[in-house]
Amino acid sequence: MTTGPSVSGPDKGAQLYEGKAKKVYATSDPALVIVSYKDDATAFNGQKTGQILGKGEINNRVSNHLMRLLESHGVPTHLVRELDGRDTLVKRVEIVPLEVIIRNVAAGSFSQRLGVPEGTPLACTVLEYSYKDDALGDPLVNDLHILALRWATREELDEIASLTFRINDILRAYLDAAGILLIDFKLEFGRLPDGTIVLADEISPDTCRFWDKATGKKLDKDRFRRDLGGVEDAYVEIRRRLLGADA
Ligand code: TMP
Questions:
Q1: Integer Cα distance of 39 and 33 in angstroms
Q2: How many whole angstroms from 214 Cα to the centroid of ligand 1?
């Protein structure tokens, strides 16, 4: 698929990949691709499907905003520049096949697996890895699984862990000032051609648990996963708090 030339960026070339929430397109520069955010939403490994109206645009803008914040603190990311509502130019990376999860407060699968009520404070921050494989249901793995199966080297994994804890510190402080508790989140990392590890994928209400600091209200994709209602409103509220009323 090809679209017309744009003043703000390179032509969208062939579609390279379609994931559950995004599509990826080639550009005339082999080192760059365009990520296009969809309104499609899935949960429980694709068993539940739906649409969240406006989500693609909100996630694109929120994720770019947070990646720019991280860049300003020295965290390397794949971001090049936002092209328009749904589309962003990013560096082409080889994705490390891991979901890197930080947990500041018990919730979700952590609460289920360990029988700990959601909202329970944790004595320290927890870092988890899941192997990105839908057919296997993204199983939880540890460092030795990752090294044994050569998904990353020791050096890469140390870099990923250290970046992830830094990202947590930066995001927590930033979101706190916007009245949002960062309960947990998932990151993905990629390798540039020279081997540098950079933050990739997205940081959005799809990939984080955001709870309102004052009321505990969920302002993230759990509203869709759990049929809580007010799904679109929660995404709009996150955009408003992070990007302002006119965003
Ligand atoms: P979990 O509690 O379901 O394991 O989710 C932990 C965090 O990871 C939560 O903030 C939501 C995010 N997440 C994703 O980004 N993608 C996924 O496929 C899943 C299951 C969770």
A1: 20
A2: 23
